């Protein structure tokens, strides 16, 4: 897979129908949401519309392959009290990310690794992130492998042992503060 064929752009209101389609797909909801609760277009508009408009401090993006939408990504700054519950000092700027590929036929093709690597570069260039974290289901070995290939490490089990908190340092200053 060619890196140049994959691009990440800010999500806009025209993407909401595509997002609703992805979030009603069982293969996507298996690890991003709840298989028993597919999203309607109205639910997607209510949740992601304020993010698109900048009313919520979660920044959403669409991933494209050769110009066609194939996935979703978002980042957000972790609140200091929350990052301290994970054991990270308050002097670090910690960002969280979430992502998924919305087209199941594109699973297991290396796209997730390309997406995440490109996204991390963008976050480092546009924010003050010292550390990027994510959580993934322990039952999702495909995602865990992807994140480890991108430089994330398993830090601790969270969500009553159902998920891994994974982290990646984004600056040399971070290692001195951990």
Overall description:
- With 178 residues, this protein is an alpha+beta fold.
- It has one domain: Gcn5-related N-acetyltransferase (GNAT) (Aminopeptidase).
- The protein is 34% helix and 29% strand.
- It contains 7 helices and 7 strands, in the order βαααββαβαβαββα.
- It has helices at residues 16-22, 26-29, 41-53, 80-85, 111-126, 141-149, 172-177, and strands at 6-10, 58-65, 68-77, 94-101, 131-137, 153-158, 163-169.
- It has a 7-stranded mixed β-sheet, with helices on both faces.
- Strand 4, helix 5 (111-126) and strand 5 (131-137) form a beta-alpha-beta unit.
- Helix 1 packs across helix 3 (41-53).
- Mean pLDDT is 91; it is low at 172-178.
Name the strands of the widest sheet in spatial order: 1-2-3-4-5-7-6
The CATH architecture category equals 3-Layer(aba) Sandwich
Structural class label: alpha+beta
The helix fraction, in percent, is: 25-40%
Number of helices: 7
Number of domains: 1
Straight-line N-to-C gap? 35 Å
- In the predicted model, the low-confidence regions spanning at least 5 consecutive residues are 172-178
CATH class equals Alpha Beta
Element order, helices and strands?
EHHHEEHEHEHEEH
User: What's the CATH topology name?
Assistant: Aminopeptidase
Q: Beta-strand level of the residues, as a percent range? A: 25-35%
Rg, Å, rounded: 16 Å
Could you give me the name of the CATH homologous superfamily?
A: Gcn5-related N-acetyltransferase (GNAT)
The backbone outline, from C-alpha atoms, is globular
Report the major sheet.
7 strands, mixed
């Amino acid at each position: 897979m060619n890196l140049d064929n994959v691009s990440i752009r800010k999500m806009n209101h025209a993407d909401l129908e595509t997002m609703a389609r992805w979030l009603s797909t069982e293969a996507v909801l298996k690890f991003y949401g709840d298989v028993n609760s597919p999203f309607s277009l109205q639910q997607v508009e209510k949740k992601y519309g304020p993010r698109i408009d900048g009313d919520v401090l979660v920044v959403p993006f669409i991933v494209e392959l050769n110009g066609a939408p194939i996935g979703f990504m978002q980042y957000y700054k972790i609140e200091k009290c929350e990052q301290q519950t994970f054991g990270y000092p308050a002097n670090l700027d910690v960002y969280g990310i979430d992502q998924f590929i919305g087209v199941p036929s594109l699973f297991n093709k290396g796209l997730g690794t390309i997406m995440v690597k490109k996204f991390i570069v963008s976050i480092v260039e546009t924010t003050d992130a010292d550390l990027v974290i994510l959580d993934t289901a322990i039952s999702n070995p495909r995602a865990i492998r992807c994140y480890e290939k991108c430089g994330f490490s398993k830090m601790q089990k969270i969500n009553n042992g159902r998920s891994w908190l994974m982290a990646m340092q984004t600056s040399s200053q971070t290692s001195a503060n951990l």
